[in-house]
Design goal:
- By secondary structure, the protein is α/β, with parallel strands linked by helices.
- The chain has two domains: about 10-40 and about 145-190 and about 335-420, FAD/NAD(P)-binding domain (3-Layer(bba) Sandwich), CATH 3.50.50.60; about 85-125 and about 195-335 and about 425-455, D-Amino Acid Oxidase, Chain A, domain 2, CATH 3.30.9.
- The protein has 14 helices and 17 strands.
- The chain has a seven-stranded mixed beta sheet with strand order 5-4-13-14-15-12-16. A five-stranded parallel beta sheet has the order 7-2-1-11-17. A three-stranded antiparallel beta sheet has the order 8-9-10.
- It is globular, with a radius of gyration of 23 Å.
- The structure holds flavin-adenine dinucleotide (FAD).
- Flavin-adenine dinucleotide binds near residues 16, 40 and 146.
- The site of flavin-adenine dinucleotide (FAD) has 33 residues, from helix 1, strand 3, helix 11 and helix 12.
- One of its GO terms (molecular function) is monooxygenase activity.
- Pfam families: FAD_binding_3.
- Keywords: FAD, Flavoprotein, Monooxygenase, Oxidoreductase.
Length: about 450
């Protein structure tokens, strides 16, 4: 780069991390100007279903607000509507019959701004809408799949599948769990497989069914159950009825559902081979596994009713569900990437943010928050950029990112592996339930101390 020339930053991937980084670099251009380009492999913003609810917590909101301009922030309520009566933004964990083991008390707030004043609060957010909001005013170049790059002393030449190339001073891989940028930069970094299968889907739940769930889980919007065979169920929703829903006999709510189980159960003789491209068969498989691993009880029946609501084909979903359901149901292996599991991580003009560097399983709800915080931190570090010190800027970002995210990945992994361990007999179950209840007691004790003594 010539002296005085504006440096170019290329971002690969227009997900939550890449888009937050774009906005932050553009927002701070008075302090440090970059020519920022963002490339996405999908051909349009609607190419791939971005569904499911995600919890955005206090540090995620703080970072997001620092990254985006006010024009984009004014649209955030579309993705994070204000809490409505009857909603309790927290998680409730029960046993397989619906007996509550854990329900952390969380300060409830009027809107997403309020989350920044809570220490453990979050707001349940529509992930697809958040992505749409972040796409506004971002000049994403769609249909540009990155295939690799060449790095020299002078800069980075980026290659795309359509044969085109772009040159930049800094390349940021924000290209998710299967990041081609990561595979080239840190080829030894391997994806860790949990041996756990994760099936998730979006459904429209009628009010009468929702009322049953709310009663068991005391109005909590995130609901988890722990089975006896290392299996878990998860349900998340907002109590905001879908507008213009086809069935007008009662309100329906957009709901994310998930079921996890140790993959070894797929190898048992009674198991049938699943065609993951056939949603109807994946739904049948999920129901089969629930019936196999869960004792017969009212809660099991409730879960089966929920899975029965999954659209059996993508076209059906789009017509009936008003929110798009391109992949009505997905089945995959639970995986993560520990960024410190390699001996060396060489800082260069090419760096990574979000899932590309440290994908983690969704059990603690950290992934999106971390991707947005990475974007915020990297853009802050780049404010000091010059052609002589770019390495130290990126090093400053990477040292903190590697240490903190490695610890997040390992904590999340340990929790997920514990939840996927079968509990044997009566005493095992008693010990597990007692430990969870004690953790709940401790969390709620701190909540009371914080709220009523320190008035936080
Ligand atoms: C079921 C589920 C629930 C979750 N719940 C939560 C939650 O409650 N809270 C939370 O914080 N997180 C949650 N997460 C995780 C969160 O969604 C992700 O961690 C987050 O979206 C990561 O953002 P990202 O920008 O790094 O990657 P992504 O959002 O995956 O974006 C990567 C982008 O890069 C593009 N791309 C990929 N390859 C290329 C290429 N070669 N060329 C160009 N573009 C490319 C992709 O198309 C994509 O648009 C959940 C995840 C799942 C699956």
């Amino acid at each position: 780069m010539q002296q005085g020339e504006v440096p170019t930053v290329i971002i690969i991937g227009a997900g939550l991390g890449g888009l937050s980084l774009y906005h932050s670099l553009a927002k701070n251009k008075d302090k440090k100007e970059f020519n920022v380009k963002i490339f996405e492999r999908e051909s349009t913003p609607q190419d791939r279903w971005q569904g499911f609810h995600i919890g955005i917590s206090n540090y995620g909101i703080k970072s997001l607000m620092r990254c985006i301009p006010s024009s984009v922030a004014s649209n955030l309520p579309k993705a994070m509507p204000d809490p409505v009566p009857g909603e309790y933004h927290s998680i409730s964990i029960t046993d397989h019959t619906g007996k509550v083991l854990m329900k952390p008390l969380i300060k409830q707030v009027k809107d997403y701004h309020g989350i920044t004043n809570t220490h453990n609060g979050f707001i349940l957010t529509y992930r697809d809408v958040l992505r749409n909001v972040l796409c506004e005013d971002a000049p994403v170049q769609w249909g540009k799949k990155c295939t690799g790059y060449e790095e020299t002393e002078e800069g980075v030449q980026v290659h795309f599948e359509d044969g085109s190339q772009e040159f930049c001073d800094i390349l940021v891989g924000a290209d998710g769990v299967h990041s081609p940028v990561r595979k080239q930069k840190v080829p030894d970094l391997k994806i860790f497989d949990y041996g756990v299968t994760f099936i998730n889907a979006d459904v429209a739940v009628p009010k009468h069914l929702m009322d049953r769930l709310l009663k068991i889980h005391d109005n909590c919007l995130c609901q988890k159950t722990l089975g006896l065979n290392g299996d878990t169920t998860f349900v998340a929703f907002r109590l905001i009825p879908l507008e213009n829903f086809k069935d007008t006999s009662e309100p329906h709510y957009r709901t994310s559902i998930a079921f996890t189980y140790p993959t070894k159960f797929d190898d048992e003789p009674d198991s049938i081979k699943v065609d993951d491209n056939n949603p109807a068969l994946v739904v049948e498989h999920a129901k089969f596994m629930i019936q196999k691993l869960r004792p017969k009880c009212d809660y099991t029946d409730l879960m089966l009713e929920l899975w029965e609501l999954v659209p059996k084909s993508p076209s059906l979903g789009q017509e009936d569900y008003l929110f798009k359901t391109y992949n009505t149901i997905q089945r995959r292996n639970m995986q993560d990437i520990n960024p410190l599991s390699v001996n060396s991580w060489k800082t260069s003009r090419v760096t990574l943010i979000g899932d590309a560097a440290h994908a983690m399983c969704p059990v603690m709800g950290l992934g999106a928050n971390n991707a947005i915080q990475d974007a915020d931190r990297l853009s802050q570090a780049l404010l000091n950029y010059s052609s002589e010190n770019y390495i130290s800027c990126i090093k400053e970002y990477e040292s903190q990112m590697l240490k903190q995210r490695s610890s997040d990945v390992l904590k999340t992994r340990s929790m997920a592996l514990r939840q996927s361990s079968p509990v044997g007999g009566y005493f095992d179950i008693l010990i597990r339930n007692t430990i969870i209840k004690m953790i709940n007691f401790t969390l709620n004790f701190y909540y009371y101390v914080n709220t009523f003594i320190f008035r936080n």
